[in-house]
Amino acid sequence: MPHYRSLKPLLDRVVHGEGAVPRNSRAGRLLRWARMGVLIVVAVVTLQSVLLVAGAWRNDIAIESDMGVAAAEVLNAGFRRSTIEFVTPERITYRPELGVLYPSELATGMRIYVEYDKSDPDLVRVQHRTAVLAVIPAGSVVVVAWLVGIAALAGLALIERRWGSRGT
Fold this sequence. Notes:
Blueprint: H1 2-16, H2 26-65, E1 67-76, E2 83-87, E3 93-94, E4 111-117, E5 120-126, H3 132-167
Antiparallel strand pairs: 1-2, 1-4, 2-3, 4-5
Helix pairs in contact: 2-3
């Protein structure tokens, strides 16, 4: 537990501030709740991004465990979701309800190859695209969340100083 002991004073200072405003005053409680709110939002955004990447890896593992490859046509291309239609070697046509994974740079009418889970053909991705593509966007969201969170905490520290100097 040596790491916890070194983080405890830092966490205490982040949550409770520098002490310019008494902890048990109304202003102290308000600042503490605001800081905790900022930390909770940043933690939730970070967790969400980690889960997004983990989900993408899970989908890739499922596809690779029983993979089929097929030619597909892009029916509707969008930034976050593109719908496709493909025919398996067994001559069964599929239109995955949730679209195709990793749909960037697709255009309506394109002919592409897809990789799909034979046991669940609704789980399909563009051929040769993997969860690695999800790391940069998810990481960018985490970085922005932490930058905004740090700025908010710095702003709350300034407010605490102003309130503290006004009280003396």
